[in-house]
UniProtKB/TrEMBL annotation:
PANTHER family: CALCOFLUOR WHITE HYPERSENSITIVE PROTEIN PRECURSOR, PGAP2-INTERACTING PROTEIN
Domain Endonuclease/exonuclease/phosphatase: 8-237
Source organism phylogeny: Bacteria, Pseudomonadati, Pseudomonadota, Gammaproteobacteria, Lysobacterales
The name this protein goes by in its record: Endonuclease/exonuclease/phosphatase family protein
GO terms assigned for molecular function: endonuclease activity
Keywords: Endonuclease, Hydrolase, Nuclease
InterPro entries on file: Endo/exonu/phosph_ase_sf (IPR036691), Endo/exonuclease/phosphatase (IPR005135), GPI-anchor_lipid_remodeler (IPR051916)
Length: 246
């Protein structure tokens, strides 16, 4: 099984942390610079007619297609939130072929849409890698229910021997949901390599451990939070990067 790089980033709809400036082209350049094989994206827009009218450099296609360009030939998108002008959700960009994918709606009625994007990828040696891109709710009671659904997905639909990456924005600022994920047989990349979960929010002065990269059947060789420029000005979350091997 090859060594590969995993990046997770909350794209913040393509705007800077104060929602004043459209920075998606700069975010694309930054993502390209780290050599990630798998990119887990949260809050990426599939369409937004109002923003498309206001910003002359708005991409003609979807934001995730714009970010993928020719670097990541394979991508999947899961729509989580729909509104009059468009929709947004989670996306996965991959240098490895995506064999199939499915988006699980884990939204709580009356609150912002959330989802689990589950994809199965084919690695160069023919091994199937499972990847789940996560964006959970802001309320702890909602996250507990959503983590139960994640645990059910892992237990019921992903073979125990299959390598697995679960990454994204868990919004678990009290770290109370961490144990629920560990009980699924996963370990966290930063906890393994650095001794503690990464601080990723807010991007300029990260203090809260909201974003995670969990692994099963894999190990992290290196992990870092990307907190310096340009990352600190491209989203409200600092991205996480990990080098992963069997």
């Amino acid at each position: 099984m090859p060594t590969f790089n995993v990046l997770t980033v909350n794209a913040h709809m393509g705007f800077d942390l104060l929602n004043r400036r459209f920075v998606l082209p700069e975010l694309r350049d930054a993502i390209r610079s780290v050599g990630a094989d798998l990119v887990f994206l949260q809050e990426v827009m599939g369409a937004n007619a109002r923003h498309a009218r206001r910003h002359p450099n708005w991409p003609q296609g979807t934001q995730y297609q714009f970010l993928a360009d020719e670097i990541w030939p394979h991508h999947a998108y899961g729509r989580n939130a729909v509104y009059p002008d468009g929709h947004h959700g989670n996306a996965l960009l991959s240098t490895f072929p995506i064999l199939r994918y499915d988006n699980r709606d884990v939204s709580i009625d009356g609150h912002e849409g959330r989802g689990l994007l589950h994809a199965v990828l084919e690695l160069p040696d023919g091994v199937e890698l499972h990847a789940v891109c996560v964006h959970l709710g802001l309320r702890e009671s909602h996250r507990q229910r959503q983590l139960d659904l994640l645990a059910r997905l892992v237990h019921d639909e992903i073979p125990a021997e299959a390598p697995l990456v679960v990454a994204g924005d868990f919004n678990d600022w009290r770290v109370r949901g961490h144990g629920q994920v560990l009980r699924c047989g996963l370990h966290e990349a930063f906890e393994q390599t650095c001794g503690s979960l990464a601080r990723s929010f807010p991007a300029r002065y990260p203090t809260l451990r909201l974003d995670r990269i969990y692994l099963r059947g894999l190990r992290a060789e290196h992990a870092e939070a990307l907190c310096s420029r340009p990352w600190s000005h491209l989203s409200d979350h600092a991205p996480l990067l990990a080098r992963v091997a069997a």
